[in-house]
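Batch manifest, entry 17 of 40.
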Amino acid sequence: MPKPHLYLLAALLAAFGLSYYSDRLDPYYLDVLTGIGINIILAVSLNLVNGYTGQFSLGHAGFMSVGAYLSAGVTLFLGPRLLGEDGGTAVTQGVLFFFALVAGGLGAALAGLLVGVPSLRLKGDYLALVTLGFGEIIRVIFQNVEFLGGALGLNGIPAYTTIFWVLAFGALAVFTVTCLVNSTYGRGFLATKDDEIAAEAVGLNTTRYKIVAFVVGAFFAGAAGGLYGHFKMTITPTGFDFTKSIEIVVMVILGGMGNTLGVILAAILLTLLPEVLRPIAEYRMILYSFLLIVLMISRPQGLFNFKFGRAKS
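Output type: structure tokens
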């Protein structure tokens, strides 16, 4: 069995073990750990687009919102009919939640395809503007659809998210991206990033590679949105605005573009940093922003720019 499969199996077993003993953990630390896992999924999935394929997407929060609303809709509107008045058993709830996350991921992947096909022939700043516009369009749509709660969002979402689901999907995201970029097919992503014109000259369809990266990244962003919604138990359109997309982009840049391990460490750092600064709440965001500026100036190539976890070109 190849090593990546062993790592995935070990991660799933660790997630199961940690979930089994989660009731013994302090709820605050469990919440922070859950937030870290969700941010890792978001950062790793965006790294496939921005880091490995060399694009610049600013609409990742839009894909996250699609997954959040779609998965919440499955559990809120279909759940009572499928599980019955008693709410079902833990097993049936887990099955429903799994299909809700997959539905959210597929919905986000479809959105990624719809955005990617017409826009990924663009490059650089133009692509960034298109993806930014997409994210804002999605937010405004959710804000004006009364069936989905409008500006107030959806409330009463079942608290199905556990540390097992977060770590399992985090491990699956890392496994998928790592195997994809290190495969023979995945060399096309790196070729697209290094020199798109040269890649097309040797016969590579760079647009197809960019669309595949967008779709895969959007799928995991949608799954992360579903986990987020069933963790917070309420979602609003403002929770998936431009600021959220920038937060995910910063994780990728700080971790090192095209560096899976570095992006994971950056997601952990940027999730913990606001919590560490919580005792000085009135100055927290100022210090947080200042530290980000210092890190970007001192390490423009990424704070965790290690060789491990990066595909060899």
